[in-house]
Design the sequence.
């Protein structure tokens, strides 16, 4: 076998799989798992790609449930009845900050009425548990982190013999460095909640790129004990304040009934163990012309501890309050109270809450699975080498 042929073989063996993905947008990637062709969501104007280019295992499943979800890519899925671990390969920007979200909707696709439980592994070191029986609604697991390579694995891991993993959607969105500034390269953050307070039924949970360039899902929440208020702004754009929230999110809010009342918001977390949490509150008055003699000051408490005092202005002047790191266990209570001298009641428009994910340790080269994979690559190389030697 001459040197030229050997060089070709070595290039083919070493060629990264991500080169097959050169036609995909590395900054806004949406994968409709189990779909057979590319489609576009008319509401968000997002393109959703079939997952065939990102994985070689698994089979397509289809949801016959007639429910209509705001999330577009939920009517197909890919399930994995063979193997303990099946992985997608996502082409992303090296050393980029990304929001990665995996969606799951069982929908009784297998007619067994037995939603499974399994693990989701992202980037080789982020391990989460998917409990499809926990809800008859779609389940999303979202994390933010920095990539170290130009592709990352998203894996479905079987943890019990008769539990068949599946996945409905995968989304990866590039986050610019001036957004969520508290995220550093050594951290992984898990989204606990992202809530839009007080919107009416006409406000969606997802928006087009022109309104939210970071592809976030803003869950609506009505809190009956407080007053729903709105500025009436319906611009298809995002605010230029920190983290660029959509105008249609910060145009809505809940407000206390008077200046003597506090807003109390209980929160629950995905784990009952001790967690380190990051809170982001979006505060903006809904009066387009707030009278000069009126002021709105709020004091923010978490589990009874004062964390911040800020003044809230009128529309187009959103105040973003980031509070971290807060150590808690399983639950928390956010209280927004009137500040000294305030003449207007407390208000909140939206809130995001993240917790720190403890990542898995680096792979040990003595690990049996690693050796097995390396042996397989060597065997494939020897087979190709033998072929060229004969010819």
Sequence:
């Amino acid at each position: 076998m001459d040197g030229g042929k050997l060089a070709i073989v070595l290039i083919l063996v070493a060629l990264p799989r991500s080169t097959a993905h050169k036609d995909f947008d590395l900054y806004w990637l949406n994968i409709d798992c189990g779909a057979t062709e590319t489609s576009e969501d008319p509401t968000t104007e997002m393109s959703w790609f079939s997952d065939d280019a990102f994985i070689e295992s698994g089979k397509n499943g289809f949801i016959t449930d007639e429910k209509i979800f705001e999330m577009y890519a939920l009517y197909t899925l890919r399930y994995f009845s063979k193997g303990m671990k099946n992985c997608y390969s996502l082409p992303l920007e090296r050393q980029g900050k990304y929001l990665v979200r995996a969606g799951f909707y069982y929908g009784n696709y297998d007619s067994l009425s037995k939603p499974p439980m399994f693990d989701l592994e992202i980037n080789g070191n982020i391990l989460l548990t998917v409990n499809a029986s926990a809800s008859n609604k779609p389940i999303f697991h979202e994390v933010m982190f920095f990539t170290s390579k130009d592709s990352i694995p998203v894996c479905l891991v079987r943890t019990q013999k008769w539990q068949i993993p599946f996945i409905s959607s995968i989304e990866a969105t590039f986050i610019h460095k001036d957004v969520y500034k508290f995220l550093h390269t050594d951290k992984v953050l898990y989204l606990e909640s992202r809530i839009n307070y007080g919107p009416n039924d006409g406000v969606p949970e997802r928006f087009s790129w022109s309104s939210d360039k970071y592809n976030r899902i803003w869950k609506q929440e009505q809190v009956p004990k407080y007053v729903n208020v709105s500025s009436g702004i319906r611009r298809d754009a995002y605010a230029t304040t920190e983290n660029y929230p959509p105008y249609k999110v910060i145009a809505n809010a809940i407000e206390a009934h008077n200046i003597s009342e506090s807003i109390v918001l209980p929160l629950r977390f995905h784990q009952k163990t001790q967690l380190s949490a990051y809170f982001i509150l979006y505060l903006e008055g809904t009066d387009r012309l707030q009278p000069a003699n009126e002021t709105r000051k709020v004091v923010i408490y978490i589990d009874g501890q004062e964390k911040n005092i800020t003044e809230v202005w009128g529309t187009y002047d959103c105040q973003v309050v980031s509070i971290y790191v807060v150590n808690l266990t399983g639950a928390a209570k956010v209280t927004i109270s009137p500040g000294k001298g305030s003449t207007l009641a407390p208000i909140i428009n939206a809130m995001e809450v993240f917790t720190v994910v403890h990542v898995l340790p680096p792979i040990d080269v003595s690990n049996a699975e690693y050796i097995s994979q390396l042996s397989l690559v060597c065997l494939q190389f020897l087979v190709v080498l033998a072929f060229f030697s004969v010819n």
Q: What stands out?
A: Residues 4-20, 364-372 have pLDDT under 50 and may be disordered. Residues 251 and 279 are 20 Å apart (CA to CA). The longest strand covers residues 319-329. The chain has three helices and 25 strands.
